[in-house]
Amino acid sequence: MMHPIDRVLQEADDGGGYYHCRKLLASGAYGCPLWFIFGGRRIGKTDMMLQVACQLWIQEGRRTMWLRSLKTEFSPEFVGDFLNDAIDRGWCPEDWYAGMDGVHDSEGKLCIKFQALNTFSNRRGPAHPDVDLMVLDEACPEDVRKYPPHPMTALLSLSKTVFAGREGCRIIALSNIVSAANPWFAALRVLPEKSISVWMDKGVAVEICEGYKCSIAPDSPWNRLYKAANYGDYASDTEDPMKRLIVRKNPKGTPERWALLTPNGLYRYVVDERGRKIWTECPPGFSGPVYVTDPTKLEGTLINSLLASSIRDDFNNQRLRFTSINAMWDVCEAVIF
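^ thats the sequence. predicted structure below, dont judge the formating
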């Protein structure tokens, strides 16, 4: 029997070619409790989830928890505009309204609950037994400093509290940035290599959106401006710009004398002739200073804030490269995120 979430997803209107979950549903991802949907801006990802959240309440009386990374993202402006598309397109009655705690129906009942990941620890006990769906909006912010601390831990802890292990419940994470270097893929150790990727053993499905209609026409003046400024890299639905940071060959240059110890390995960088800092696994027998980011780890010295800030600055200014996806995941998870 199809779970109400999947039935509502299947029946949702695609608006004439905008984003729809049918590809994920057809892939056999029903059994995966965690979905990631990564793609370009203005293709309708958020609107579809808003439609689904409204219909889950109207048809099934089931609430949705709408997540953002930081509490400050639930600003009065965000709240005031949240229901605009839903009301305009008839997904909910006109007398529904949004407050700082979430969306209320015409009787004042809370049907979409707002929750920030960085305050997940404030929610204890099975306080929401009628919540079957979580939608994580803007899962990958452009500014890595806007990730909450330990985001995967926060997300899974919140799901454990709210869902209490009920089958059929789902988290759907949306992102405008198609990026291999993010804390979600790093924690799960997954790398999508095609449009739809499903890891049944991990309960994870990922869609890299392709072929959907966009509300900004490809030949519009705005898209020409975005392309001129290389802004399109953040909205590409066909290429992951982070993969350009992988240097497959062993780097030649001056190795750093210290190394970074992560839960999955020991890494240091080599400065090549172009001034790039290429992170790679340390050779056997490395005897230099070792830094750690977890103060409970006794195998090394806790990295100081100045050095950690320098690594993040190098990342933000595109001076870092990596010899493998694993090196990129581990270094980014340890220091960048």
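The first helix runs from residue 4 to 11.
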